[in-house]
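TICKET: design request
STATUS: open
ATTACHED STRUCTURE:
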């Protein structure tokens, strides 16, 4: 049994990890309301599809707006039954308009320190768009704009910290369990002095969606520690991300040695073609989502 989004391939544990919903709740929504529609594998396991994931995300969004579980399930199943509509998909212009409106709602809520409204806006964005679109077209541009507003003095330090911490929490939920599996391994880190790692988290989340296992070291990682981790973990890829210009050059000699032990890529505004060429690394010049989706990263 295939769905418009591809064959069912997810076990309930993976679906639970992606959505941040316990498997107990997922089973309840399946048995009581029919929101999930799994098929059985040849081994007897329930397998869930991307359409199931979409239905649960839309149910979460309806719950965040105050509907009961029964009402939310009814709304989701009603959306799926609309003539000519794919699972949860409005027509293109309406979806684009809704996404623009929700992006504005998200910014307004974050700037106003309104955590519940910001979470609800994110829930609705994820229910209406793919995760890649939410991260690439909404979250990353918002963070870039926030940084620019902070530099101009039109956004306060408190606003920047509040928004960054809320978004970090959502990303941390998406990253849960990203070291599990049997795919290739990537080690992700920021160099000493680099305190901005949200874009690197986005890259790791999307790389994990392409089958990679992630060892995440995060911000302000000493190069010596990174090197020891690479020697111990033997990754298939190492990514070092820097937003501050000149943050990588002082470590050029160590990075040259590191690049001889594992494939090294440099990312962020602080990574230039010159430093990448000097240390023998690949330069990741695209946005984090696009870079993670490139066929060359997955296998």
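STATUS: resolved
RESOLUTION: sequence designed for all positions
ATTACHED SEQUENCE:
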């Amino acid at each position: 049994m295939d769905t418009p989004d591809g064959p069912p391939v997810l076990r309930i544990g993976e679906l639970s990890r992606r959505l941040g919903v316990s498997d107990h709740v997922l089973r309840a929504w399946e048995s009581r309301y029919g929101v999930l529609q799994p098929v059985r594998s040849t081994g007897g396991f329930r397998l869930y599809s991307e359409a199931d994931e979409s239905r649960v995300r839309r149910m979460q969004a309806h719950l965040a707006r105050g509907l009961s579980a029964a009402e939310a399930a009814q709304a989701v199943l009603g959306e799926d039954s609309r003539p000519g509509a794919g699972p949860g998909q409005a027509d293109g212009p309406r979806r684009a308009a809704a996404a623009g409106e929700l992006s504005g709602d998200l910014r307004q809520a974050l700037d106003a320190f309104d955590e519940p409204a910001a979470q609800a806006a994110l829930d609705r964005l994820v229910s209406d768009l793919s995760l890649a679109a939410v991260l690439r077209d909404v979250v990353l541009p918002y963070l870039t704009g926030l940084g620019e507003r902070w530099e101009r003095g039109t956004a306060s330090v408190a606003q920047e910290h509040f928004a960054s911490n809320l978004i970090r929490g959502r990303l941390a939920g998406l990253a849960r369990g990203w070291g599990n599996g049997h795919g290739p391994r990537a080690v992700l880190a920021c160099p000493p002095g680099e305190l901005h790692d949200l874009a690197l988290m986005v890259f790791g989340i999307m790389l994990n969606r392409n089958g990679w296992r992630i060892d995440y070291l995060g911000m302000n990682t000493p190069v010596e520690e990174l090197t020891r981790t690479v020697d111990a973990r033997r990754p298939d890829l190492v990514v070092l991300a820097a937003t501050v210009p000149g943050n990588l050059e002082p470590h050029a000699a160590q990075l040259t040695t590191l690049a001889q032990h594992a494939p090294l890529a440099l990312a962020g505004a602080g990574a230039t073609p010159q430093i990448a060429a000097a240390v023998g690394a690949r330069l990741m010049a695209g946005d984090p989502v696009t870079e993670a989706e490139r066929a060359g990263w997955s296998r």
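CLOSING REMARK: The chain has three domains: 12-80, 92-175, 185-297. The two ends are 25 Å apart (CA to CA).
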